[in-house]
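To: structure desk
From: M.T.
Subject: fold request, one chain
Message: Could you run this one when you get a chance? Sequence is below, nothing fancy, just the single chain.
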Amino acid sequence: MDLFAGLGATAPALEQADFFRADKLTQLFHEKISQSQAAGKDGIRGPRYLEMLESEIPLIERKIFDGTYKFTCFKERLIARGHDRNPRQISIPTVRDRLVLRSICDVLHNFAKYSLNNTPHVLVDQVAKLAKLSDDDTSFVRLDVRDFFPSIRHNLLERALRGAGLSDLVVDLCMRAVRTATGSSMAAPEIGIPQGLSISNALSQIYMASLDSGKSAKSLNYFRYVDDILCITKTHEAKKALNSLSRSLSRKGLRVHREGKSGKTEIKSLQEGIDFLGYRIEKNNLSIRKSSYDRMFKNILKIVTEYKYSKEYDRSLYKLNLKITGCIFDERKRGWMMFFSRTENISQLRALDIFVKNQMLKAGFPKKGISNLKSFVKSYHEIRYNLNETKYIPNFMKFTDDEKIEAICALSNNLKEIVATWNPESIDAEFKKLIAREVSDLEKDIGGIS
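Reply: Done. Structure tokens follow.
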């Protein structure tokens, strides 16, 4: 019997349902999840689930289409946000649920208008360009939404999902996911989107679409990235713009931090400049925000300090170079320099290069280590002007087996003679595991970009 026969005759509904066929689920698992070391409440990781895949896929497919699929309570991870703020709650799904969520995410991105937000780079470029063209009688108005994800109303979200052209099947799965508890709570949440799920950002984009394209936004030079909103307006209109946007957000159940209290909701003149998405944006200069810049000094110093005690030259040099250049992994640009490649303040990068060399000398790095050290300034130019052709920035998706072996040996205690005897599958699995760990560390370097 065809599992899709009862889904209705509309072509979009059938096309969306295709994403949950057994063959699609199997393909997605192998492409995106099979090597994942993240585990939900059941403690099962990607490689272990692979052994269960043959029996699990038909079961997932059947439950999705007969309407009985239930998400397992998400594991809780808390991320500290400072001594005076509650920690951020991150929801970690089981491997099975992660597979279903990734399938839902693919449907959202393929069928739901507005589910994809502009990247920080696109927004920063747009704001910086507009700032340069603005006259001195101009101000930045920045709003920061309080508890953005936890405040999203389920009834408004469901209405937005249906308005975006999603089928009943997909809407039902989305709502089941957001109504799944996290941590020790037994009660289904009545409000909010769990953070950390692959669908979280897409759902929030759909939720905010009507505000982003609404009358108040259209009348302003308006930019939004998740919960961080910025507009550029005439100084005498700034307070009015802040109040108008605050009212629009309130109608969606969202509140902004009071002006001046958090430092995140504020009005600043064009001459003062403003911090937005990790950058310092001024009329005639675009640079790296001070807190983001200072964090990189600390992260470099951490690796150098580790070397002083371990004397693991290959590992320390590999990690330092990766911190400096960033990389391409899983078809995405990763790392601090990749993120801050829009800066116009090259002197910041030169200062970092000098700092790294001085710290290496103090730590007793061999001279060959310093000569093999990469440069923030050169990385910047390669990323901006030569990324498709460069060999300077590692693209881990193009590594040969020999390059994978070298990376494994540099990042672990394995000897090259031993690793070279492994079969290609074992080399690839170990390489991906080690690089995924380093890439996760690279993402932390950027920190909160609000």
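Reply (cont.): The radius of gyration is 24 Å. Let me know if you need anything else for the meeting.
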